[in-house]
Amino acid sequence: MSSQQLLHPRNLHQGRYDFAALIAALPQLEAYVRLNPSAEPTIDFTDNQAVVLLNQALLAKYYQVKYWQLPPGYLCPPIPGRADYVHYLADLLARSYSGLPTGKQIKLLDIGTGANVIYPVIASQSYGWQVCGTDIDAVAVKAAALIVAANPVLKSHINIVQQHDVKAIFSGVIKGDQRFHLTMCNPPFFASSAEAEAASSRKWANLGKAGQGHQRNFAGQQHELWCEGGELKFISQMITESQLFKQQVSWFSTLVSQQKHVSVLKKLLRSVGAVQSEVIEMRQGQKVSRILAWSFLTPQQQTQW
Q1: On the chain, which terminus has fewer CB atoms closer than 10 Å, C or N?
Q2: At what angle do helices 79-94 and 118-127 cross, to 10 degrees?
Q3: 279 burial class (0-12, 13-18, 19+ CB within 10 angstroms)?
Q4: InterPro entries attached here (predicted)?
Q5: Are 199 and 231 in contact (CB under 8 A)?
Q6: Is 284 helix (H, G, I), strand (E, B) or coil?
Q7: What digits encode the pLDDT tens for the residues 88-146?
Q8: Angstrom distance (rounded) from CA 123 to CA 130
């Protein structure tokens, strides 16, 4: 069974990678493609350059992105799973419309967009949405802005903004007259550098590359991977801060990696007066992740948004 068989139905990355088509989109990828024991084409996912080239090929073929470069050491995300989050958000928003919401009138805010700017790319190219991507890291902001500027298909759809207050999430980013249909976030999962390194070492061991954990196959800067208190503290702050913008956002959302955090976060949502909350489960092969979404608006208010 393909590891991608349970992706969202609208996800463009169903089944196995079509390496012939990807090589046609990016010929440099061919040098990194090899056959696995089942004689099927693949790449070495522990090879940073191979993973970057795979992403460049996917972005070129499916999203018309011709330039995509990351600063050394920054997170290189697996694109199929990232696309799922966007598609499930589209389903969530579709409840307030007669069909799937498309076009620049739909506004999305991506918290922690990173140097890879992957969520804004997928959202703008899949649905034509207008996306604002934010990050606290000046290097990431510069790299993301360069990707947007270098690709004509992105320039009119994506705006990159630096969050200058490292203790804030929405404050300073959402202006007084701005409204967003959706917010999204892939928060730092770990509570410490040691915790992030331990998880990375386990991943490398599973890939048969024990002892190379410090070289993380998908890289990532400190703020991309961990923060004090981990995802529970980060998302709790996000929920608390979202109260300040309850009339300016139709649906807030975030990924939650650990199931045990969901009940705690839902309790917090009740305490801050969220009118709606929902947990959307996503499956990619054996991996299960979830989106936590909440709103301070009623469904009727959302239809009039």
Answers
A1: N
A2: 50
A3: middle
A4: METTL16/RlmF, rRNA_lsu_MeTfrase_F, SAM-dependent_MTases_sf
A5: no
A6: strand
A7: 999 999 998 889 999 999 999 999 999 999 999 999 999 999 999 999 999 999 999 99
A8: 8
